[in-house]
Recover the amino acids of this structure.
């Protein structure tokens, strides 16, 4: 039984590591029931580059 438990632990670690791969902004949520990991959720956020202040001024002037 200990080998089966070890294999499950290794599998959980591997899945968590895969969920973390290439994650720049976001979160990993691990759900545990009765001391067992039952679910791994990955939420990823994409950050867009900020607009340049200069381009904002041009569009504001053009709309007036």
């Amino acid at each position: 039984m200990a080998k089966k438990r070890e294999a499950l632990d290794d599998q959980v670690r591997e899945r968590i590591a895969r969920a973390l791969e290439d994650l720049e902004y976001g979160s990993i949520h691990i759900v545990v029931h009765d001391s067992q990991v039952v679910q791994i959720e990955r939420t990823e956020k994409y950050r867009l580059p900020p607009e340049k202040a200069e381009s904002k001024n041009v569009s504001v002037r053009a709309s007036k």
Summary: Residues 2-63 form one domain.
